[in-house]
Amino acid sequence: MVKKKRSFQEAETVVEPVAVEESASADNLRANLEEIKTYDGVVGYILRNSASAAIDLKDPAKIIDYAIISSSALDAGEELSELFNLGAVKDVVVEGKVVKVFSLTVGENRISVFLEKDADCDKILRKLQ
Amino acid sequence: MDNEVYTFALKSALNEIRNACPDITNAFMFGEDGEIIVGDEKTSEKTMVHVVDAFEGIFEKANAIGGVECITIQGSNGRVSVSWMNELYFVTVTSKKADLNYVNTVTRVLIPTVLRLMEKISSTPLKSNSPLTETKHKPKISMDEELERFEPVVEPVEETVLEEPKETVEAETERKPLLSELPVSQLIVENLGGLLVPSDTVRIDSEIMAKWEELYEGIKIEEVEVGTFDGKTMRCKVKAIKDSKYEGKGVIQMPEKLQVALEIKKGELVRAKPIIE
Predict the structure, then answer these.
(1) Residue B101 and residue B83: Cα distance in Å, rounded?
(2) What is the pLDDT of residues A63-118, one digit of tens each?
(3) What is the per-residue pLDDT for A21?
(4) Torsion-angle region of residue A64: left (phi > 0), alpha (psi -120 to 50) or beta?
(5) Which of B55, B71, B78 sits opposite A84 (nearest CB)?
(6) For residues B241 and B204, is the Cβ–Cβ distance under 8 A?
(7) C-alpha torsion sign, points B131, B132, B138, B139
(8) In A, which residues are within 8 Å of B54 by CB distance?
(9) What distance in Å separates the CA atoms of residue B270 and residue B39, rounded to the nearest whole number?
(10) Model pLDDT, residue A27
């Protein structure tokens, strides 16, 4: 009986910190994204992981389109990285004539930041990495 | 300019780019509608189709960001870059050690120059929305067969004038520009099922069917040859898709039996051309 109890306690101590860490990481990212949103030329962001999603866009009418572009860009990155042996995908940038989309994966979190065409991606990359 | 010459010129340009920049591992071009134009000699058609398919979601929603000008996937060992040039998308895959300034200088100068040059040489634009002219730049499944079939029409007008009576010459010269086009269309496979659906019949985008029939001066297209990128071909009966939501979408609906026979599935690309006898 004593043995069983000990092993249960051990399992708990392993699982708990990971969950806390993931949550903290997502919260931290979200805080960074909130700050990024105030930068010049940033029109919004999408943060998604297996448990939750946060979308903040200046133009809510484009949520679905932007969500599809975000998801497709990250999926294409993974798919083509595998096809051409590109290794770990650092980021995917889709430049449109009006808006550009900067996407990356941080741990379990898939992030896309939407910016005006001439806005600076490097500053955002530094903030997120 | 003949489509083979276009393809040859572009292919040579891509191969030269790879020679000049050995860190470019793959280079190819595709049109706005996803139609593959040409690739360098080391990039397989299957790879090109895979890349175009991977970007499908982005292109479908591209209007939301004002159309796609450039896509870059940066990996730890290399990168994929897609750039919009002269109404075509140009794809390059480069290794980690590539000098991106040099690669960009070469590709962004050489490719637009070649494209502009070819457009100047030919009166026909490189890219057109018409599915009939799209076929000009496609690597064909059986171009030789097509050329043989239309051989009398492809002959120069002067030769025809010498051999034929005047009335026939007029008729021939009217038909020539139409039939010398090879109406091969690149289509996306959709499933076709149901109790009353014949297993030997495919259904094709009604817009494409109408253009084929117009090309063949009202002849009803009853059969098509469907070909895969692996070279498998099959002759099937054909009807136009009635559902208006598929109009202009470049779709071919195929019964499961035909998909199995051609070893393809929903979402893959095939080529179809009408059979006129």
Answers:
(1) 15
(2) 999 999 999 999 999 999 999 999 999 999 999 999 999 999 998 899 999 999 98
(3) 54
(4) alpha
(5) B78
(6) yes
(7) positive
(8) 75-76, 79-80, 83
(9) 18
(10) 83
Alpha helices in B184-250 (DSSP H): 206-215
Task: Identify whether the C-beta of residue B98 lies closer than 8 Å to the C-beta of residue B107.
Answer: no
Q: Identify whether the C-beta of residue B216 lies closer than 8 Å to the C-beta of residue B274.
A: yes
Question: What pLDDT shows up at residue A23?
Answer: 59
The partner residue sitting opposite A96, judged by closest CB among B26, B60, B66, is B66
CA distance B183 to A81: 35
According to DSSP, the residues that pair with B78 across neighbouring strands are B95
Give the pairing of strands A89-96 and B68-75: antiparallel
Report CB contact under 8 Å: B75, A86: yes
pLDDT at A119: 87
pLDDT band at A4 (very low <50, low <70, confident <90, very high): very low
Where does residue B228 rank: exposed (0-12), middle (13-18), buried (19+ CB within 10 A)?
middle
Across residues B58-81, what is the average pLDDT? 93
Element at B116 (helix H, strand E): helix B100-121
Number of other residues whose CB lies within 10 A of the CB of residue B25: 19
CA nearest neighbour of B252 among B265, A8, A18, A17:
B265
Residues B12-36 pLDDT 10s: 888 888 888 889 999 999 998 888 9
The residue with tokens 């140009």 is: B90
| Rounded Cα–Cα distance for residues B11 and B24 (Å) | 14
Q: Which residues of A touch B (CB under 8 A)?
A: 62, 65-66, 68-69, 71-73, 75-77, 79-81, 83-101, 114, 117
Alpha carbon of B88: minimum distance to chain A alpha carbons (Å):
15
Do residues B17 and B107 lie in contact, with contact meaning Cβ atoms separated by under 8 Å?
Answer: yes
pLDDT at B216 (0 to 100): 79
Task: Give pLDDT tens digits for B185-206.
Answer: 888 888 887 766 788 889 998 8
Cα separation, A101 vs A119, in Å, equals 11
